[in-house]
Amino acid sequence: MKKIKTTPLAPQEFEVEQISENEANIMAYPFETGYAISLAHPLRRFLLSSSVGYAPIAIKIEGAKHEFDSVRGMLEDISDFILNLKEIRFKIAGEATEIETKYSFTGPCTIKGSDLSSSEVEIVTPDAPLTTLNEDSVLNFTIKIAQGIGYIASEDTHDELEDGYIALDAYFTPVRSATYKIENVLVEDNPNFERVIMNIRTDGQITPLDAFKNSLEVMYAQLAVFNSEISIKAPITIERVEESPDLKRLTTNIDSLGLSARSFNCLDRSNIKLIGEITLMSTNDLKNVKNLGKKSYDEIVDKVQEFGFAVGADLADDLVTALKKKIEASEA
Which CATH number describes the domain made up of 52-171? Predict the structure, then answer.
């Protein structure tokens, strides 16, 4: 029989699975049916559109007047050079939001992303190719690098540039892909709750977890307008001691104790489902459980001790707080 609720169950589990340096799965659960996608879809939009990154917005090349020009001794023409430059991902050092950085190369040489690293800028794609210079050739150029979000077309920045600069399409977004899937997850005996798994892959300018944090901040900022006129009760923050091994063991179902049918049924009829509920009880509370005799009491005490805890255990305050929240959530 389905329980009558006055509030939906709030997710309490959060996990990060690091796949590689620039890719991670971020999971949260359990959600009520339909809630997971309501959260995942806007977060994906914010990840792709509002993550802050860096990109070259303009370049000035000595001896070149426009993007269809060429430079003596350079294998690529300017248009191919610019395409290669866009594939190199920069990261400005310090707090600056825009910098100009100058470079000078003499051939013969092959220039890669790592050759553009300096005290002002870090290159997160060091192996990306830029250009090849022949013998006796010289290449001097200046790049404007800026911080931003989303995409800015070259037409939008062209009029703001000094003479000699070629405006570039700027793709700031450091998130290369953001996808999600929804899975069913079992809560007690109900399989209709949901888990959202978000896969985030970045270009190295930012970690997947930082990108996720930024998207949450943007979402909160967008919703804050409603709080200016409507007083919204702040949700209770769930302490992240959920990672504690003790908490995970205490939230194990009493099935794991291997109790006799009589002892198990006494606890189950009193709506005691988790081992942690027994540890929070005093010995008198346990003895007063309806229809629980001395033999069953002794069995429960022994089984809990075998599990590594005790009835009326003196647990740490933060562990007790988190355990009580878990118990409340399981009863919701």
Answer: 2.170.120.12
Three-class secondary structure of residue 10 per DSSP = coil
CA dist 115 → 118, 124, 142, 202, 275 (Å): 8, 12, 14, 22, 60
Tokens for 235, please give them.
Answer: 């949700």
Tell me the mean pLDDT per 10 residues along the chain, length 332. 74 90 93 92 94 94 88 91 94 91 93 93 94 92 94 90 91 95 84 92 93 92 81 57 70 87 88 88 88 89 88 82 77 58
Domain boundaries, the chain: 13-51+175-235, 52-171, 241-331
In 3D, which of 88, 132, 128 has the Cα closest to residue 107? 132
Overall pTM surpassing 0.85 (yes/no): no
Fold of 13-51+175-235: Gyrase A; domain 2 (3.30.1360)
Q: What's the CATH code, domain 241-331? A: 1.10.150.20
- Is residue 50 within 8 A of residue 214, CB to CB? The reply is yes
Residue with tokens 């570039």: 168
Side-chain-facing half-sphere of 64: CA atoms under 13 Å? 25
| Nearest residue to 277 (alpha-carbon basis) of 288, 269, 286 | 286
